[in-house]
Amino acid sequence: MAREELDGYLRELNPPQLEGVINTEGPTMLIAGAGSGKTRVLTYRIAHLMKHHKVDPFNIMALTFTNKAAKEMRNRIEAIVGAEARNLWMGTFHSVFARILRAEASRLGYPSNFTIYDTDDSKTLIKQIVKEMKLDDKLYKANLVYNRISAAKNRLVSWQQYLNDPIYAEDDAANRRPEMGKIYKAYSLRCFQADAMDFDDLLYQTNILFRDHIDILNKYQQRFHYLLIDEFQDTNISQYVIARKLAAVRQNIAVVGDDAQSIYAFRGADIQNILNFERDYPDLKVIKLEQNYRSTKTIVNAANSVIFKNTAQLKKNVWTDNEDGELIDLIKATSDNEEGKLVASSIFETRMKEQASNNEFAVLYRTNSQSRAIEESLRRNNLKYRVVGGLSFYQRKEIKDLIAYLRYIVNANDEQAMRRIINLPKRGIGPGTIEKLVVAANENNVPLSDILDRATSHVGGRGGTQVENFATLIKSFRLTNEKKDAYETAAHVAKTSGLMKELYEDKTIEGLSRYENVQELLNAIKEFTDDPEREDKTLSAFLQEVTLLTDEDRSENPEEAITLMTIHSAKGLEFNYVYVVGMEEELFPSQMMLSSRTDLEEERRLFYVGITRAKKKLHLSYALNRYRFGTLKNCEPSRFLEEVDPAYLKVNKKFSTTSPLSSADSYITKNFVSNLKKDKANRQFATRVNHTPSPDFKPSDTSTLTVGMKVEHPKFGFGSVSEIDEEGSNRKAKVNFDSAGEKTLLLSFAKLRIVD
User: Fold this and answer.
1) Annotation says 215 is catalytic
2) Which one of the listed residues 153, 386, 605, 613 is annotated catalytic?
C-alpha cells in the first residue's frame, strides 16, 4: 500500500513503526529504543485493530505500568476511533486483574468487595505478627519481611511451598531469620481472614484463579483476542505467566519494550522475560524501533557507547536525525556541597542564556539522600524546585484516616482499617482493649465485627461500652452507604465521625493544611461520582482506584519548578536539560550492585536511562569527597564515566574546580580491590580490573604529553602514545596498551603516569 493511500495517522509513522502497527496477527515483539515513539506505535496498533480489522474493544486487553500511561493512550485512541475506545480493557496489570478478581472472587473464597492493602497496611500487619510471635523486630524488620514475601509471590511461591522448601529454610537460617516462612503463613492467613489482598496478591491470586479454574481461564482466553503489553522489560514472572496463559489460544500477543531500560529487578522485574521471549514464541516477529526522536546525536551516541558494554542485551543501533547538539559537560567538584553549587550555577546560567523555564531542568541521582546538597544550593539561588518521591497526597495521615473509615464501612473484616480508626478521634479505647477483642474473635472463630457488637461481654468497664458505641456508629455509616453515593457517604462520615471537627479546631498552619487536604479528598470523590463515563460509582470502586495509583500517578505537579528525582523515578520522562550527579564508584554504580555481572549490567542500564532522559543538553558530575553515613570519604570517578566515548565529553572548566583529579593512589578503590580478591565471582565479571597499578603510581601532568611517550594507566596498564588530538580542555590521546589494545582517552579526565 502506497503511503499516500494510508490513513492520516499512519502517514506519521516511519517504516518500522508502520510495520509494528499494521502487522497485527501472531506474536510480535517491538524492541523500542529510548525516544523511538513506542507509545505512538502501541496506541496506533490498537486503533488499527478497531478501525481496520473491526475488532470489538471488549476483545482487546492492553496492559501498562501506570494509570497515567493508560489514560493518555486511551485518549489518543479515542481521537482516532471515537468513544468506543472507552470499552477497551486497558490499564495497569494490577487494576485490570483486580477487575477480573472482583468478578471471580467467590471462586477463591473472597467476597467481591475485598480490601486491597497498600504497602503501609501490609507492613503494619507484619509488625503485629512479629510482635505476636515474640520475635526480634530488629532482625525481622517489616520492610525486609515484606520484600521477602513479595519476592516469593512474584515467583509464584505459596507459603506452603516456602515452608517446605529446604533452600528457603537454609537461606533464612543463614540470615538468622528461621521463622520467615511462619510469618509468611501467618500473614497470608490474616489477609484472607480480613478479606484482603495486597498488591502482589492481585497477580498471585490471578495466577491461582487461572491455574485452578480452567473454565475461568478459558472464558478470558475466548474474550481477549488480542493482548498488548507496554514496558515488557519491567514484567515479573507472575505477570508473564498470566500473559502467556491468556494468549495461549490465539497467540496474538504484542509486547513493546527496551531491554536497555530494564532497571527494576529490585521490584521483581525479570529481564529474561524479554531476552528469552522468542524461546516461548518460535514464530515471533521482531520489529526494531531504532530512530530516536528525543535527543541530540551527541546524547544518543554517548548512550550507545555505554550500553554496548553490556553482554546480556538484544542488539540494536539507536540513531537520530536530530542535530549534533552540544558535547556532554563533565563537572568535577571537590565535595558534594560544591557539586550542588556548581549544578545550581550551571542551571542559573542556562536559564538566563537560553531563556529556559524551570520545568525544562531535571537533576537525577542514584539515591534520594543526594538531594540535600542540591536543594540547599537551589534555594540559595532562589530557584524553585520540586522533589519527586516525597510523601504523596494519599499517604498523608489525615487522608489515610478518612480512607480507613471508608474501607471499614465497605469491608467489616478489614482489621487494619478497624485498628486505625477505633480510637480516632479518641474514644478511650486503648490498645489493650483492642487486643482482647482480637483474641476473643480468634478464640471463638468469628468475625471481629461480631465481637465489637457485643464488646461488653469480653471487655469490662468504659472501654467495652465505647467499643459498642463505635460499632453502632459504623453500622449507621453502612446504612448511609447503601442509600447514598460515594461522595455523600464520605462527606457524612468525615463530619459525623468527628474527624473534620478535630482538624478544624487545630488552628495551626499544619492543622489548616490537614483540614484542606481532607476537603480536597472529598473533592476527588465528588469528581469521581460526577464522572458521566464511569459506570461503577460505588465507594468500593473509588477505594480500589485510589489504592492502585502508582507512584507516577500520585506525583503532584506544581507550577514551573526544577525536578529533582532518582533515575528510577525518571524512567519514561524527558527534559531539555538533565544533570546526572554523584557519578562516583560505590555510589553509581552502587556498592550493593558490584557482586555480579547481572547487577552491574543493571546499574549500567540505569545510567543509560539517565543519559537518555536529556533532549538538548546533558551534564555529568562527580565529587572527590562526599559525606556518607556521617563521614567524609574520598571518592573515585565512576567507571561509567570512562565508558562514555570521550568524543562526546567536554570538561567544563567554567564549572569545574582546579583540584587534582583524585587524591587516591589508584583509580580503583582499595575496598573494591579487596572485595575482588575475596570474591571469585567478582573477578570473573569485573574485567576492568586487569592491571595492578605500580606502588609509586601517581597521575602525571599530561599537558606535556607527546606522541611516543610511555605511560601507565591504573586500569589498562602500560602503553605508548600514538596520537594527540585537539588542544585545550578537550585534548585527547590515543594510547596503544600492551594488554588492553588501543584506547582514546580524554586527558583532562584520564589518569596517566608518564613512565621515565
Assistant:
1) no
2) 613
Assign 114 a pLDDT band (cuts: 50, 70, 90).
Answer: very high
Whether 38 is catalytic: yes
Nearest to 592 by CA among 307, 266, 310, 363: 266
Q: Which residue has the cell 575475596?
A: 678
Alpha helices in 323-447 (DSSP H): 336-354, 371-380, 397-410, 415-421, 431-444
**Crossing angle between the packed helical segments 214-223 and 237-246, to the nearest 10 degrees:** 70
Dihedrals phi, psi of 537, to nearest 5 degrees:
-110, 20
User: Of the residues 24, 38, 64, 332, which is catalytic?
Assistant: 38
Q: DSSP letter at 629?
A: T
Q: What is the pLDDT of residue 2?
A: 47
What cell was used for 189?
A: 492467613
- Compute CA 537 distance to the chain's CA centroid, rounded to the nearest angstrom: 29
Rounded Cα–Cα distance for residues 197 and 191 (Å): 6
- Which one from 261, 416, 529, 566 is the annotated catalytic residue? 261
d(CA 405, CA 493): 8
Least confident stretch, 30-44, 115-129, 685-699 = 685-699
Burial of 520 (0-12, 13-18, 19+ CB in 10 A): exposed
CA distance 40 to 230: 11
pLDDT for the residue numbered 62:
95
Q: Which of 104, 118, 200, 231 is catalytic?
A: 231
Q: Please state whether beta strands 28-32 and 285-289 pair in parallel, antiparallel, or not at all (unpaired).
A: parallel
Calculate mean pLDDT across residues 247-266.
92
Q: Which of 126-140, 269-283, 550-564, 681-695 is least confident?
A: 681-695
Per annotation, catalytic residue among 17, 24, 28, 39: 39
For the question of residue 230 being annotated catalytic, the response is: yes
39 is catalytic: yes
In the beta sheet, which residues pair with residue 724?
733
Find all residues with CB under 8 Å of 290, minimum gap 6, and list them.
16, 33, 36, 316, 317, 318, 319
**pLDDT score recorded for residue 669:** 30
Cα separation, 140 vs 136, in Å, equals: 6
Place 507 in a pLDDT band, splitting at 50, 70 and 90.
confident
pLDDT value at position 506? 81
Q: Mean pLDDT, the chain, as a whole number?
A: 86
Question: From the candidates 118, 179, 230, 415, which is the catalytic residue?
Answer: 230
Cα separation values, 126 from 156, 176, 186, 201, 741, Å: 20, 18, 9, 15, 55
**Least confident range of 253-257, 325-329, 448-452, 572-576:** 448-452
- Report pLDDT for 629: 60
Nearest-5° Cα angle at 495, 490 to 496: 100
Residue 334's closest CA among 625, 584, 656, 751?
Answer: 625
- Is 205 an active-site residue? no
Q: Name the pairing type of β-strands 361-365 and 575-580.
A: parallel
Q: What is the pTM of this model?
A: 0.76
Residue type, 430: G
